[in-house]
Amino acid sequence: MDHLVEKTIRKEKIFSGKVVQLYVEDVQLPNGKTSKREVIKHPGAVAVIPITKDGKLVLVRQYRKALERVLVEIPAGKLEKGEEPFASAQRELEEETGYRAQSMRHIVSFYTSPGFADELIHLYVAEGLEKLEDAASLDEDEFVDVLEVTLEEALKMLEKQEIYDAKTAYALQYLQLRRVTGEKHA
Amino acid sequence: MDHLVEKTIRKEKIFSGKVVQLYVEDVQLPNGKTSKREVIKHPGAVAVIPITKDGKLVLVRQYRKALERVLVEIPAGKLEKGEEPFASAQRELEEETGYRAQSMRHIVSFYTSPGFADELIHLYVAEGLEKLEDAASLDEDEFVDVLEVTLEEALKMLEKQEIYDAKTAYALQYLQLRRVTGEKHA
């Protein structure tokens, strides 16, 4: 597939922040012409589909500065430096919802915006949720409302664009598919 | 939901490129503390799930500079300035695959990375595909291989991480769900 590759001629680092880095790259296209690519580097992230013992989905409502609005999403967060995705998913679930999962498994990973960013998100399903006694594990600078909803309620939120992001839309489809193929829960 | 809002204190434009703009914002958190947010502004995008008359899925293989690798994805592209998403989806389908759709309908829209970017992607399903006679409509600076695969073949590509992005993973689940609920195609 070498006939598709864009060779880097020059790479300039424009910005290095807490979360993202931005590069502008001059590339040589397969036809020999040159072009510019704007590339965002991101540490990667995890997201969890948490299902309670009575089959409800746990969601978090939070403010998203990039959108200047509140969204309802499955719990998620950035990977910390050197952190394994599985451990990160456990941590984010606890910090954002106050739940610990008896079982958690990886279902899929995907790049969210391959056209301009390298963010890779690892998605898990968490079951057998136990409420933690100490709320101390909740992140004090994270402001979220925790919701427990049925799949039908979540699908209505998707319709009303309260749920409006790729990983949560994927999660709802995953639960719908699981239901129609006869698996239990949500 | 005002108790979740982060107020902007200061906003600095760091970069304005062909595709993205980057801002760093000082915000006041709901607890009165301040923090910084890195925000990427993006024009938005469209993606199409194109299904051939014999029920195959049309995919494109292309190089993604942000990932430094080739991915297989459903056809997609950025919104041009002032362009309606529906027209954009028709254009991208034609430019990338050489197919025109007899019917195309919107199925969902979602933000791809609400944690740091405002990219909103509008997803369509296209059916009744007709091959265009003139390849002239293909974008000369776009280098893609066009593939036609069954859903099973696409799911294997997802397993092998040749398909590795959110919108295409969503598309495959959409087709799986459609199949098990008795709808035809793919």
From TrEMBL, chains A, B:
<dbReference type="InterPro" id="IPR000086">
    <property type="entry name" value="NUDIX_hydrolase_dom"/>
</dbReference>
<keyword id="KW-0378">Hydrolase</keyword>
<keyword id="KW-0460">Magnesium</keyword>
<protein>
    <submittedName>
        <fullName>ADP-ribose pyrophosphatase</fullName>
        <ecNumber>3.6.1.13</ecNumber>
    </submittedName>
</protein>
<dbReference type="GO" id="GO:0046872">
    <property type="term" value="F:metal ion binding"/>
</dbReference>
<feature type="binding site">
    <location>
        <position position="142"/>
    </location>
    <ligand>
        <name>Mg(2+)</name>
    </ligand>
</feature>
<dbReference type="GO" id="GO:0006753">
    <property type="term" value="P:nucleoside phosphate metabolic process"/>
</dbReference>
<feature type="binding site">
    <location>
        <position position="96"/>
    </location>
    <ligand>
        <name>Mg(2+)</name>
    </ligand>
</feature>
<dbReference type="InterPro" id="IPR004385">
    <property type="entry name" value="NDP_pyrophosphatase"/>
</dbReference>
<dbReference type="Pfam" id="PF00293">
    <property type="entry name" value="NUDIX"/>
</dbReference>
<feature type="short sequence motif" description="Nudix box">
    <location>
        <begin position="77"/>
        <end position="99"/>
    </location>
</feature>
<keyword id="KW-0479">Metal-binding</keyword>
<feature type="binding site">
    <location>
        <position position="76"/>
    </location>
    <ligand>
        <name>Mg(2+)</name>
    </ligand>
</feature>
<dbReference type="InterPro" id="IPR015797">
    <property type="entry name" value="NUDIX_hydrolase-like_dom_sf"/>
</dbReference>
<dbReference type="GO" id="GO:0005829">
    <property type="term" value="C:cytosol"/>
</dbReference>
<comment type="subunit">
    <text>Homodimer.</text>
</comment>
<dbReference type="GO" id="GO:0047631">
    <property type="term" value="F:ADP-ribose diphosphatase activity"/>
</dbReference>
<dbReference type="GO" id="GO:0019693">
    <property type="term" value="P:ribose phosphate metabolic process"/>
</dbReference>
<feature type="binding site">
    <location>
        <position position="92"/>
    </location>
    <ligand>
        <name>Mg(2+)</name>
    </ligand>
</feature>
<feature type="domain" description="Nudix hydrolase">
    <location>
        <begin position="40"/>
        <end position="171"/>
    </location>
</feature>
